[in-house]
Amino acid sequence: MKTLEYTKGRHPISLRNEKRWTAEECEALCEQGHIAEHYELIEGKIIEDMRTSALHSLLVGLLLDVFAPLFGTSRVRIEGTIRLSEEVRQKNLLVPDVSITKEERRAYRENPLPQDLLLVVEVADSSLRLDLSIKAHLYANAGVVEYWVVDAIGRRVVVHRDPSSKGYQSVVEWSEEENVTTLAMPLIPIAVSDILPA
Considering just the CA atoms, what is the radius of gyration of the chain in Å? Predict the structure, then answer.
């Protein structure tokens, strides 16, 4: 376990000199076939679906294998959109790779709100900088209580907790030799190696 220090409230990735899109514009572009059906909107920047690699699919499957017995399959969401406030939604559409809801899926007629989520996980096979910076800041601002980044290349899990308007106040790295727990089930250890490829 290693506590990490990130500059709170600052993003190492620059999004300057690019057009900022709104959620409404993205929906229109998608309907017209100009962008992929699966995309995210991050601070006005369209990020088309990058979840097609074999490694990414494997990691999402491993997370499902670990979380389904703990929380039940009806509480584990794969690539499910989070319902953000209207103001935030104008520039952002967040679709985490895996999330765990407080209730079973039948309880949500609409996409769940951040406060409906026990855990959000992003798999980083090619998106590590984005997941650790801008996305972490957005999830913290939204009030997601626990956010994990599974770093496939670095073979670690970076656990973010204690959200605030300035970002997560606790950021801890767990290596593949260690066990990690969720806030929702603090007495049940999860081997980091179980959610990484052999």
Answer: 16
Q: pLDDT tens for residues 106-120?
A: 999 888 999 999 999
Phi, psi values for residue 65, rounded to 5°: -60, -35
Residue 161, pLDDT score: 98
Residue-wise DSSP of the chain = -EE----TT--SS--TTSPPP-HHHHHHHHHTTSS-SSEEEETTEEEE--TTSHHHHHHHHHHHHHHHHHH-GGGEEESPPP---HHHHTT-B---SEEEESS-GGG-SSPPPGGGEEEEEEEESS-HHHHHTHHHHHHHHHT-SEEEEEETTTTEEEEEEEEETTEEEEEEEEETTSEE--SSSTTS-EEGGGGS--
pLDDT, tens digit, for every residue of 49-94?
A: 555 688 989 999 999 999 999 999 999 999 888 887 666 666 777 8
- Please count the other Cβ atoms lying within 10 Å of the Cβ belonging to residue 157: 21
